[in-house]
Amino acid sequence: MTATNPALTALAHGWCALSLLHDRIESHLERRLQAAFGLSVREYSLLDVLSRQHDGEGGHLQMKQVADAVVLSQSATTRLVSRLEDRGLLSRYLCPTDRRGIYTNVTDAGLQLLDAARPVNEAALGEALAQAARDPRLRPLVRAVEAVRAPVVMAA
């Protein structure tokens, strides 16, 4: 029989709780987005990330940056972009200043779908967090997620 280090055991339990919270939230979001819009969580995330690009300095994201933002490999991100492009939600074009670069932008149809999906995603996220907060193992993590919210920028 081997001795177990209590600190490592606590760390492993914390990691399991974080994984459980992630799975619960993602599953809830997936069900809601699929039912309402036929979007996966990854598709929604990709549309959201790309919708925040702009034409100014550093405004367009490279595929690696997009892959990092949606937590996928570059090849999986490329396949995801292709699927959404086939649906008319994204478009790709060559960078005007570097013919090796390819930009990916959200189409008007993609922006309309994203605008409709955002409130559903936000509501589903709130529901998933509220449900998870009832589990004593997940409650501290829910509080941490809620504490990390970005500050709201007030219009002038």
What is the subunit arrangement here?
single chain
* Rg, alpha carbons: 19 Å
Specify the number of helices: 6
Strand order of the largest sheet: 1-2
What is the makeup of the main sheet?
2 strands, antiparallel
Order of helices and strands: HHHHEEHH
Q: What distance lies between the first and last C-alpha atoms, to the nearest angstrom?
A: 65 Å
Structural notes for this entry:
This protein is mostly helical. Helix content is 63%, strand content 6%. Strand 1 (90-94) and strand 2 (102-106) form a beta hairpin.
Quick recap:
The chain is mainly α and 156 residues long. It is built from 6 helices and 2 strands, in the order H-H-H-H-E-E-H-H.
Relevant terms:
two-stranded antiparallel ribbon, 6 helices, globular, 156 residues, mainly alpha, single chain
Provide the fold topology:
Blueprint: H1 6-37, H2 41-51, H3 63-70, H4 74-86, E1 90-94, E2 102-106, H5 108-133, H6 139-147
Antiparallel strand pairs: 1-2
Helix pairs in contact: 1-5, 2-5, 3-4, 5-6
